[in-house]
């Protein structure tokens, strides 16, 4: 499948958030790919069997990252369907394309694009996003583009994290780090609004209504996630990515001067979590949000 045939224009001018993903976060995400793909697999397994995807469907995966969700979707739609994965980070897509080549799949391709500014129109039966829409700088614009990519009557599903209290795998480490370091200032460089920006059902429902969706439904899914192969891996992950990682990164030299104390405190907190054969496991909770592009 060619980009031209799909009428997708690859991103050429990046926003500040997109530059931050490519220049700062990409290498960190690649380092912890085993957590961001494998660690979330239990959560994905709780969601994927319920997705309204049929053989032969044309599917768009927004914020596809390393391509694991797009590949799963390609398996669901079969050889008569097609899947296009888009992401703003080229480094992630390199991994996705390599995995597709290894598997010999011909019904999935990947394009670097910013969903807030560059998506095709009226081409897909289903649009999907796993933990990506939370980082839209303009969520209404991004979700409107996702809707316009659907054919009339097409469905979208996006998955977002619920409240901080229901996601200790993200919130606990930040609470620990804030005992030693100040909160990031308003001028801090970030990847976008953040993982809890769509936790409030009423707010997100209003956003989606403004974006033109109909029959908006929310379903809560609770599932464990693996946050590290062991305690040291989990600590390194938390200080590199997510809310705790942002606090640590923005504190700069102060954070490094207190690294030993912070790591000791995180070790104590993480040692209290559950363990499984694949590593340290913590609770997580998401909204699986579905909607229709009106006829």
From TrEMBL:
Key words of the record: Methyltransferase, Transferase
GO molecular function: methyltransferase activity
Cited InterPro entries: Methyltranfer_dom, SAM-dependent_MTases_sf
Stretches of the chain forming a coiled coil according to its record: none
Source domain of life: Bacteria
Pfam families reported in the protein's UniProt record: Methyltransf_31
Domain Methyltransferase positions: 56-158
CDD domains reported in the protein's UniProt record: AdoMet_MTases
Metal-binding recorded as keyword: no
SUPFAM superfamilies, A to Z: S-adenosyl-L-methionine-dependent methyltransferases
GO biological process: methylation
PANTHER family named in the record: 2-METHOXY-6-POLYPRENYL-1,4-BENZOQUINOL METHYLASE, MITOCHONDRIAL (PTHR43591:SF24), METHYLTRANSFERASE (PTHR43591)
UniProt-recorded name of the protein: Class I SAM-dependent methyltransferase
Organism: Bradyrhizobium sediminis
